[in-house]
Every structure is written in structure tokens, then in C-alpha cells.
Amino acid sequence: MNLVKKILFYLVLTTAALSFVYPFYWMLMASFTPEKHLGSLILFPAALTFDNFRSMFSKIPIERALLNSVIVSVINTGMALVFSSMAGYALSRMRFRGRGLIFIILIFTMSLPFMITLIPNYILMVKFGWIDTFLSLTIPFLVNAMAIIMFRQAFQSIPQALIDAARIDGCGEMRIIFTILWPNIKPTIITVAILVFMATWNEVLWPLIVIREENLMTLPQMVTLFAVGGRAEAQLGVKLASAVFLAAPIIIAYAFFQKYFIQSMASSGLKD
Q: By the 8 A CB rule, do 265 and 191 touch?
């Protein structure tokens, strides 16, 4: 009976995994499949071609959009790590009035959809004159509520004696955060970096609103306009090639850092 249960258990897990992975696999195979063979594609393409990718590169400035996305994602990730870790340290180790209320408000803001703050943020960008600049893609994302909470939980798991010893040695709060505590929470730092990078990289709605010049567009924005704006000329293979090009950096990053990501997510329970 135990063997039968184990077989059924792994059979269900395998079926669930295949149902999740197959659409991504089909998208990848379809991007290398000639347009006329897409309707018959199941597992392997009848013929391989790079025409879909060549067509994509010839129709849109994908290289410039890729560079823009890398710049914006790296800036947002770096700012989120620095400022969110500072806020998380203050909430976990400093004693001040209203600390608990601020933490509750942070958790509450995570439940609010982005649409609620969309119009106020856009009005601010217009008043500051940041429309069609990278500032509109970076400044509104200086801090991240999820990142602050994760850093708070990570810092609370570190013994207070370590922080007290650093203070006795003459370390200031900034030095404690970045030279004493950061090396002890590497899984959390990598997890926050992956989450923020993924969120920034995949963001489409906000860039569509604040960026109109083609040379400033991010990759998801460019791919979206390419797929629905007519440049793909109803060619499904070209649209899938652009989707693969968009997803590849995230898949590669997660493949390299998944060990730290899983380790941090498994050990980040909420603590008072």
C-alpha cells in the first residue's frame, strides 16, 4: 500500500509539473518552427528555423529595448536592496513610537492593487516633468513593501549580541547594516533581488503610461506593442520569438540563484 501511495503521489506531481512546463516548452519550440508548421506542433518541430527571430530583430529595435530594461531593472533592484534593508533594519532593531503601526500599514499596502495609485503617481510624474524619462521608471520604486518585510524578518533572526558587539567596536548603523548584517543574510538579499528584478522586468502597464518615445521603451513594453500593434503582421511565430526573448533573462537568473531563493522563502516565517 505504501508503494502504491508513493507511485500515485509522484504520478500526480509529475502530471502537475508537466501541465505547468508544457506551455513554456511549446512556446520555445514554436519560436523555432516555421509559420506553416505551427498548427501541427506537439513536441518537436518538423523543421527548425531562426526566421522568427530574424524577423523580430528587423521589425523592432529590440536591442535598445533590452538595454533599457537592463538599466531600469538593475537600478530598481539596487535601490530596493539599499533602501528596503535600511527600513527593515529600523523596523526590526530600533525602538520608536509607531513602529508596529508602520509595519501594519506596510502589510496593508501589499493588498492594494497598483491601479489605485496609478493615477496619483502619473499626476506626480507630470508635475515633476519626468514623463519620457528613466526617472519615472525608477523613482516611484525606491522602496518595496515586500522587500522591507523580508529584510525585517531576516534581521530579526540575527542575534542582538552581534549588533551590540559592532556598536562597541565603533560601527555606525549604516556600517552595521551593510558590512555586518548583509553577509549573514545572503539568501534574503538574493531572493529580494530576484523578486524585484522580475517585477521590474515584467512591468508593462506603467511604462506604457509614462514612456512614449521608442528609444526609451523597455523590453516588455516594446514586445507588447509589437505583438498587438501590428508590426508582427499576425505572424504567431514572430510573436512567440519575442516572448521567448523576453522570458529568457528571468529563467536564466532563476536557474542560477534558485538554491538561495528557496532557502530564503523556506526560512522567512513572520516573527515578532
A: yes
